């Protein structure tokens, strides 16, 4: 009898849970329908392609396919680690990304603080629009603009310098000058867009804190240092973690469009190396191995920075 009572009570609990689930799904099924397309996107374009990662461990033949290509283990990784070009591309990737992080990461924070301190709403909106616009330009367009401005013979800046009796500056032909040009163009293109995130974080700070600080006699710099920056610290740490996680990953278009053979010592990065080796030389095994190496190192950096963020008292990203 006791067993029957337990079974009957458990069946009632299950039926009650099922009825709650049906009511919940009937009320919220439209939300789950909206998830179909994003879920399909991630499955098709993010998870299914992981099947091709094994190309890095096979002597891939396009006509035989992945499964029929012979297994070579870690031979592709041994080959790329012995290549001088790969070491140069890896060094340049770290160098360019670190330079972007060093100069490009604080810039939107400073811009967001300046914009938040402006009193004129009209001028603030105008400034935001001007700052955001470069983000919507492709690097092909920015590359052509850089040629018109920085070309050694026909660039607007060098023509102006020559008319003033000064020597031309090799913005695009000297590797050190190119490094500065590359960095400045990156800041100009992305700083305005990244400012949106920090402006949103500043907007979320309680206005009463500023009012109380003003009553206590705190000046503008004091309010920024003791209220604004601590108020957006979690946002800064989160974005810093994400940027450090991508420090070994670099886009193809920016270094490829702005770079040239004269500055290859600095402009040749992992993405251009993969393009040259994987597509032009058609060594897909080597290209896949390099891509897998990038992903693994990126995950390691992400885990380390997230761990350090938690150690200093922040939430991190997971």
Element layout with pairings:
Blueprint: H1 2-34, H2 36-47, H3 65-68, H4 75-81, H5 84-104, H6 106-117, H7 121-132, H8 139-150, H9 156-163, H10 175-203, H11 207-215, H12 220-231, H13 233-245, H14 253-258, H15 264-267, H16 270-280, H17 284-311
Helix pairs in contact: 4-17, 5-10, 5-16, 6-10, 7-10, 13-17, 16-17
Describe this structure in words.
The chain has helices at residues 2-34, 36-47, 65-68, 75-81, 84-104, 106-117, 121-132, 139-150, 156-163, 175-203, 207-215, 220-231, 233-245, 253-258, 264-267, 270-280, 284-311. With 318 residues, the protein is mostly helical. It has 3 domains: 1-34; 39-73, no CATH class; 80-311, MetI-like fold (Orthogonal Bundle). It starts with a helix and ends in a 7-residue tail after the last helix.
Question: What's the number of domains?
Answer: 3
Low-confidence stretches: none
Superfamily (CATH H level) name of the largest domain:
MetI-like
Based on CA atoms alone, the radius of gyration comes out at 27 Å
Topology order in helix (H) and strand (E) letters: HHHHHHHHHHHHHHHHH
Task: State the gist of this model.
By secondary structure, this protein is mainly α. The chain has helices at residues 2-34, 36-47, 65-68, 75-81, 84-104, 106-117, 121-132, 139-150, 156-163, 175-203, 207-215, 220-231, 233-245, 253-258, 264-267, 270-280, 284-311. The chain has 17 helices and no strands.
